[in-house]
Amino acid sequence: MMIDRRDFLKLMGLGSAVLVLGPRGLAHAADMKAGKDDFLFVQLSDTHWGFSDPKANPDSAGTLKKAIAAVNSMKTQPDFVVFTGDITHTTDDPKERRKRMAEARDIIGALKVKNVKFLAGEHDAGLDNGEAFQEYFGKTHYTFEHKGVHFIAVDNVSDPTSSIGDTQLQWLGDELKKIDKDARIIVLTHRPLWDLYPNWDWWTRDGAKAVDLLMPYKNVTVFYGHIHQENHHMTGHIPHHAAKGLMFPLPAPGSVPKRVPIPWDPAAPYKGLGYRGIEAKTGNAEYVITEFPLQKG
Amino acid sequence: MKTAKRLLTVFILLAAGGFAFNALAADQVIKVTAKRFEYSPNVITIKAGVPVILEFTSLDRVHGFTVPDLGGVRATIEPGKVTQVRIVAPKAGTYEFHCDLFCGEGHEDMTGKIIVEE
After folding, report:
1. ipTM of the complex, rounded to two decimals
2. Which residues touch A106 (CB under 8 Å, ≥6 apart)?
3. What does DSSP assign to residue A12?
4. Is A126's Cβ below 8 Å from some Cβ in B?
5. Which residue segments constitute the domains of chain A, with CATH numbers given?
6. What pTM, to 2 d.p., does this model score?
7. Of A3, A124, A256, A297, which one's alpha carbon is 20 to 30 angstroms from that of A204?
């Protein structure tokens, strides 16, 4: 599929900020040309289906559907959509957990794009080691390749200690051995792989081990969720991009004593919520990242 | 005498590593209960440089305890067991602790503070 960059920028007519972010840092995308293997994928995160607190989101039953409709209205449809965890809001009741997962899966099934990838968040998988998640959304860690880009989904939530675990790290190392050092690699995960703010549990206990495994590879980019806000960080040459959430925003790390949801602003409904488009260019390890705010209407 | 020296060495090594072990008579013991989604007490005041044993019991399920700014000391608190964590805070300040084992909808609220006085 050929993507005309102007089309991409006009997808929603929102005037969203556009960044090109890649292993070599920030740059502007103005002179990028479309190639035959260019592709677009969309990241949605932290939809927390089942969450209920009108002070944080009076439209909790409508927000996921609204996001799905927004993606469906994109002029250029993505090749695939990825959900980076916390698809559902946690519950102690295994039956209710499965009900929420079934409902979320049905709502997501309304996407025009049928190629959908799922990662678990701790709300989905932390209380049962990912058992229900796997019933409804499949494996919690896996790889796939798309138009020359190697995608690696890393599970750092099914182990409730916020860890990837030695077994999966071994698997990650084995998978990486199959890939050239200069190949394009995108890591998808839920928690940050670096110590963003451990006091709020915004880290992965053994995330540094995963980063160490990735470090020899020249063109690695990490997309994740969990913190319900954008964050862009480099560990060495590896960029890490956190996405906004789609139920409630959270405060900046350490900015307030407790990480409670930012209250809904009636003057600016859905403020702080959004999703992102990620455009991969042929032969280029940099990505055009467009942030789309969820909007009223 | 040699045995006593060896014991002292082990004591220091364990303390430096922040490992849980049986309380020694000289250390103050502070009992803390953990249940979804709170510790009690959730504000603990200690003296800088003075070792303290935090003695945890869980009233419901498995919880965690960690103080990222105190060398990452952590423990898993299992129901039916007493879990001891020895901490020594080197300097005055407020150190946040939290449950680091996801325990449900209020997990993010399961926090507390250690206030360290000179």
Report:
1. 0.81
2. none
3. S
4. yes
5. 5-11+39-56+65-281 (3.60.21.10)
6. 0.86
7. A256
Q: Average per-residue pLDDT in chain A? A: 90
Give, in degrees to the nearest 5, the angle at Cα A113 between A112 and A115. 150
Say which residues have a Cβ less than 8 Å from residue A199's Cβ, sequence separation at least 6: A254, B68, B69, B96, B98
Q: Which candidate from B72, B98, B102 shows the least CB-CB separation from A127? A: B102
Domains of chain B: 2-117 (2.60.40.420)
CB contact under 8 A, A160 and B101: yes
Calculate Rg over the CA atoms of chain A.
Answer: 18
Half-sphere exposure of B11 (CA within 13 A, CB side): 13
Q: Which residue of A has its CA nearest to B70?
A: A199
**pLDDT, position B71:** 87
- Residues of B in Cβ contact (< 8 Å) with A162: 100, 102
pLDDT digits (tens, 9 = 90+) for A140-175: 999 999 999 999 999 999 998 999 999 999 999 999
| Distance (Å) from the alpha carbon of A199 to chain B's nearest alpha carbon | 6
Distance from CA of B98 to the nearest CA of A (A): 7
